[in-house]
């Protein structure tokens, strides 16, 4: 039993169904607020100095903050709802909760650490802008890892396998970190790239903790089972690959014989080397 199974056995009954829908809905609300009242977004953003001054709500309200705007963002959010449903069906409700909530907690902890460490090293705390965008994007990446050969329609038009979409997104995120570093060095990476790194870290940690670890004895039994199943015919099955239709000899009873099919006989009739050229075609 791995770590995730132990957690699920103890806390699984508290899991929230369709948690991804609430996160997407929060993103929609932030999207609307950015147009209706842009100045209100400044009171929702994650800010360690403001939190230290008593604005505790910022630990949670950053989930309404957005990255980007426009029709492409709305299309991205619309695609995430069915994808999140498929991921929850694959992982289970509890593990879906662990993945999403773990990603959000990791963002908060990472944002605080960046501020504290930068304050100690540079003498000034760097503000980290947090948003749910990369958590939601990593949800798609998790689905691609679970179902690599599934086909999706990019922008509802272009069919593409999810494993290739995963590669595209990984390259895009790495390039995004590179752009931040080229533009402003490690400082800009800390300010804008922290959530990208944390999303990928959450993805890695989740699947690492979900991995079933076998004992040495279990691994030995597994290898023996695969070796036995790979052999043809399987031991004790009584099934052979070759059998002469005249004498009935097989590669098991007479391993020294060669067997061939006759192209002049009707059907798939196989003969041993002693009867291949001496039988009557029928």
Largest sheet: 2 strands, antiparallel
Mean pLDDT: 81
User: Which shape, going by the Cα principal axes?
Assistant: elongated
As for the CATH topology of the largest domain, it is Rhomboid-like fold
Question: What do you see in this structure?
Answer:
- By secondary structure, this protein is mostly helical.
- It folds into two domains: 3-216, Up-down Bundle (Rhomboid-like fold), CATH 1.20.1540; 237-282, no CATH class.
- 59% of the residues lie in helices and 5% in strands.
- The chain contains nine helices and four strands, in the order αααααααββααββ.
- The protein has helices spanning 3-11, 19-36, 48-52, 58-61, 71-91, 93-122, 133-146, 162-210, 216-230; strands spanning 151-154, 158-161, 259-261, 270-272.
- The strands form two sheets. The protein has a two-stranded antiparallel sheet with strand order 1-2.
- The protein is elongated and about 95 Å long.
Q: Can you describe this structure in just a few lines?
A:
This protein folds into 2 domains: 3-216, Rhomboid-like fold, CATH 1.20.1540; 237-282, no CATH class.
SSE arrangement:
Elements: H1 3-11, H2 19-36, H3 48-52, H4 58-61, H5 71-91, H6 93-122, H7 133-146, E1 151-154, E2 158-161, H8 162-210, H9 216-230, E3 259-261, E4 270-272
Antiparallel strand pairs: 1-2, 3-4
């Amino acid at each position: 039993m791995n770590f995730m199974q132990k957690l699920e056995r103890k806390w699984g009954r508290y899991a929230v169904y369709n948690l991804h829908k609430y996160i997407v809905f929060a993103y929609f609300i932030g999207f609307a607020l950015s147009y209706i009242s842009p100045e209100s977004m400044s009171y929702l953003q994650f800010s360690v100095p403001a939190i230290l001054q008593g604005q505790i709500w910022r630990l949670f309200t950053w989930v309404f903050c957005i990255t980007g705007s426009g029709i492409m963002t709305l299309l991205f959010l619309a695609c995430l709802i069915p994808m999140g449903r498929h991921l929850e069906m694959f992982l289970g409700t509890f593990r879906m909760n662990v993945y999403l909530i773990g990603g959000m907690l990791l963002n908060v902890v990472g944002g605080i650490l960046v501020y504290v460490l930068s304050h100690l090293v540079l003498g000034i705390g760097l503000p980290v802008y947090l948003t749910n965008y990369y958590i939601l994007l990593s949800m798609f990446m998790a689905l691609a890892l679970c179902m690599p050969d599934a086909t999706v329609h990019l922008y509802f038009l272009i069919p593409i396998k999810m494993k290739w979409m995963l590669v595209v997104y990984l390259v895009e995120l790495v390039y995004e970190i590179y752009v931040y570093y080229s533009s402003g060095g490690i400082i800009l990476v800390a300010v804008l790239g922290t959530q990208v790194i944390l999303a990928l870290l959450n993805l890695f940690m989740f699947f690492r903790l979900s991995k079933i670890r076998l004992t040495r004895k279990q691994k030995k039994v597994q290898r023996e089972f695969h070796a036995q199943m790979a052999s043809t015919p399987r031991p004790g099955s009584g099934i052979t690959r070759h059998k002469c239709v005249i004498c009935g000899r097989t590669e098991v009873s007479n391993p020294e014989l060669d067997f061939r099919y006759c192209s002049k006989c009707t059907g798939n009739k196989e003969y041993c080397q002693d009867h291949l050229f001496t039988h009557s075609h029928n």
